[in-house]
TrEMBL record:
Matching InterPro entries: RNA_pol_sigma-70-like (IPR039425), RNA_pol_sigma-70_dom (IPR014284), RNA_pol_sigma70_r2 (IPR007627), RNA_pol_sigma70_r4_t2 (IPR013249), RNA_pol_sigma_r2 (IPR013325), RNA_pol_sigma_r3/r4-like (IPR013324), WH-like_DNA-bd_sf (IPR036388)
Protein name as annotated: RNA polymerase sigma factor
Residue ranges annotated for the RNA polymerase sigma-70 region domain, each copy included: 37-103
Organism from which the protein derives: Pendulispora albinea
RNA polymerase sigma factor 70 region 4 type domain boundaries: 139-186
Homology family: Belongs to the sigma-70 factor family. ECF subfamily.
Keywords assigned by UniProt, alphabetized: Sigma factor, Transcription, Transcription regulation
Amino acid sequence: MNAHSTEQPLERRELGTDEDVVRRVLAGEVHLYEVIMRRHNRRLYRVARSILREDDEASDVMQDAYVRAYEHLAQFKGAGTFSTWLTRIAVYEAFARLRRRGRHASFDEEEAEHEDCVMATNPRTPEQSAHDAELRAFLERAIDRLPSDFRTVFMMRAMEEMSTADVAQVLDIPEETVKTRLHRARGLLRRVLTQRLEMSSKDAFSFAGARCDHVVRQVLRRIGRS
């Protein structure tokens, strides 16, 4: 990255669509490629992460995808959206890395792994901030445990809100297959979340800590007065 990387992030809204930015990059304003990256970092990370389930590898794939896209930027014909074209490159890079790694895991195998995820039981306690972080971590682990095909579709459709048509184009599968995988992913997540909720429900509405101490003190004080 050039000197622009040390300055304030470029204002994205004033630069038009991705296609507008691409045309300017191809015309010589190479520094504007930063805009492309900042616009698509989250999507590419989520997509790569859904395939590889490794933060560092997902980051590496993002870099590879951006470099590959830049090297072939002139080949973007505008038949679809640039974001779809770029996402497809990231998916290709992620699957290539997965094949090299040669590691595959099924939902059943991962489901057998023991994972501790303690959810806060009372949102009004001082542990509220920890509750949000733990819930988010649990949801991420639940998504990670989906079969890879379902996980990737779920990440694209439910989290990145890509259209069914775009997901089908990126993954080179029929739209009906996208719908089926999304439906099954949601079903699996619902089952896991329901199981976790039932396990946690025994501790719901707990009465401990400061509230418990307060009642005890008050009662003892009143007893002492009688």
